[in-house]
TrEMBL record:
InterPro entries in the record: NST/OST, P-loop_NTPase
Listed name of the protein: Sulfotransferase
Gene3D superfamilies reported in the protein's UniProt record: P-loop containing nucleotide triphosphate hydrolases
Transmembrane segments: none
One GO MF term: sulfotransferase activity
Keyword Kinase among UniProt keywords: no
Residue sites binding 3'-phosphoadenylyl sulfate per the record: 135, 143
Alphabetical keyword list: Transferase
Species this chain originates from: Sexangularia sp. CB-2014
Active site (catalytic residues): 44
């Protein structure tokens, strides 16, 4: 709420529909939220452009890790976050006050081919929205 008084930005509607929980480390009296949305994609499918366009919105906060703050891979089957479980996923994201109405997202072309990711997302964050961009296949092939 204090952020809005300073910036004049109003909260995003339904921004708190993500599981925001007190962070497990007692020294940190703050809240972490899992991704509100995921941009799965295919190579040359414009998912990076879409994520960068969304990132210009004042309500979107970047994850703390990932290539270009996009390729975090919160729910992918391989990598450090997969081995670390949900605690590692929370550590990859910024501290948020759920009352501020800020959102955080994730995106990776690997979501399109990781067969275990949908079940992991459904179990941990069933509210998560997906934003998928599809390009005309011939134009995509020549890009």
């Amino acid at each position: 709420a204090a952020l809005y008084r300073r910036t004049g930005v109003t909260p995003a509607p339904n921004a708190t529909r993500t599981p925001c929980r007190p962070f497990a480390e007692p020294a940190l009296a703050a809240t972490k939220c899992l991704a509100h949305f995921i941009v799965p994609g295919v190579e040359k499918g414009a998912s990076t452009f879409l994520f960068q366009s969304l990132s210009s919105h004042p309500h979107l906060v970047h994850p703390l890790t990932g290539s270009g703050f996009k390729e975090v891979g919160l729910y992918l089957s391989s990598g450090q976050l997969a081995r670390g479980g949900v605690a590692a996923r929370y550590r990859a994201l910024p501290f948020l006050d759920p009352q501020d109405g800020l959102v955080v997202g994730d995106g990776s072309v690997y979501y399109a081919v990781d067969r275990a990711a949908p079940a992991r997302i459904a179990a941990e964050a069933p509210h998560t929205r997906f934003i998928l961009v599809l390009r005309e296949p011939v134009a995509r092939a020549y890009s």
